[in-house]
Amino acid sequence: MYEFSPLQPIFPNLSPSEEMSVLFARIAALYRAKTIEPSVASSEVFGQDGYGMNDDQFNLDEEEEDEQQEDRKTPTKDVLEDHFKVILERIGEIEKQQQQQSKAFLQLQNDQKKILEKVSEMEKQTKKKVFLKFQENFWNRFACHKDIEISGDKCLIAHLKGNPSGYWHSVFAKYPIVLNKHLSDFFYFEISVMKKKYDWVMFGFAVKQQTKLQGSIHCENGTYAYQSDGNIWINGERKGINAEYSYCIGDIVGIGVNFATRQMIFTKNGLRLNTSDFLVDPSFADGSLYPFVTLWFSGDKIEANFGPNFKFDLATL
């Protein structure tokens, strides 16, 4: 009789897709076998050799064919149904294998994606570690207006006290930005606004003048500042107000300079502002500038961040 094992490929020399094609053709032949002459059905379903394949495909020698000659008779209904069942089982097995292969391929794609994301993150972190090397800095009590109180473990908080009014009060950082030049191509720092009465908070870079701790530093040559009303000051000149650039309590704003290109950068809450056209004057590009902050009203209070962990991601530059 015609016995097949559903656990093994019926046509082991064929690929799954080729085997599926043959099996579906065999199913069609089985259906036709129920409506045509048995002798024709025998030839169509089982082929001249009884299996639907030639001698070479099954690699049957002549002796095997002679021994099986007696069994190659017109198939009964039960035989047709048995073959139909075996073929369906084999099709089910192939489909299951294909599903498993598809799942494995999708898993491989997901694994590759995760690996690429991890490599990208490692490259980004490596770039960030190389790029973000900053000289430790802090507010200098000896370059500070008498009404500004410096506090915090690292002397990063500047708080205007007393009852001053009608003029600016400034404090400079201890070290100029040039000290960062041998560590990085860039200098950048941020302030977070803790208290502010009106739009009279300003910070940036300026030529250090300890006698200029009171007054409008932002109007002096060599000053580059970002004011809380949205004004940008470049080398003592106001470049206009942009309401979107204004900042208030809770905002984190930053200013920086690229030593190689002299390009300025201004940020607000981690986003870069559209100020790429602003450059530091060549006469001050050697880094002879100091970070500063200027406060106007009593109670105004900020905290500086000289790096390396900023709200803005410098590695994206």
UniProtKB/TrEMBL annotation:
CDD domains: SPRY_RanBP_like (cd12885)
Signal peptide: none
Domain spans labelled B30.2/SPRY: 117-311
Region Disordered, annotated ranges: 45-76
Highest taxon listed in the record's lineage: Eukaryota
Acidic residues biased stretches: 58-69
One Pfam family this sequence matches: SPRY
Protein name, UniProt field: B30.2/SPRY domain-containing protein
